[in-house]
Write the structure tokens for this entry.
Amino acid sequence: MMDARSAWTRHCVRCGGGLRPQHRDGRERPVCVDCGAVVYIDPKVACGVLVMRRREVLLVQRRNDPGRGLWCLPCGFVDADEAPEAAAAREAFEETGLRITIGALVGAYHYRDDPRGAGILLVYRGQAARGVAQAYDDAAAVGWFALDGLPPLSHAPHRLAIADAARRTRRPLPERTDSH
Ligand SMILES: [Zn+2]
């Protein structure tokens, strides 16, 4: 688990001064020794897309760390001026070449296992346009995987999101219509 201070910046974002931990607003936070600004360390916001084809889910193999060689949903960080749904569609297109229509939110997942900082992952259902998925950008490969045969995943929240979506799409057994 990450130490909270590992996410701190080295310098004040307002004046560039040094930071010293002080107790502010109920917990220890970095405070500038020069201008007194309290630096609030916000979570990063990431988006992922869960595209299903029958009982298979679309995954990409990560070309870069963290988790290089492992698999994950098409995903990436949201830019500050970008809606999360737009970021989800953009990342999915950049990594797979597929145009994705973003659907319902599967869930919001807090994570602390990324060395770039703790964050919140928003996972959406996605519908892929016709086409063959191919690996681009920071994806080394793409593939469709059965829900009971997933490869090693890079981030725990992705597995949670896939499980949540699978639970919801599981069809109830057909009712018996015979009268025996
Ligand atoms: Zn300052």
User: Anything to note?
Assistant: The pocket of zinc ion is lined by residues 12, 14-15, 17, 32, 34-35, 37 (CB under 6 Å).
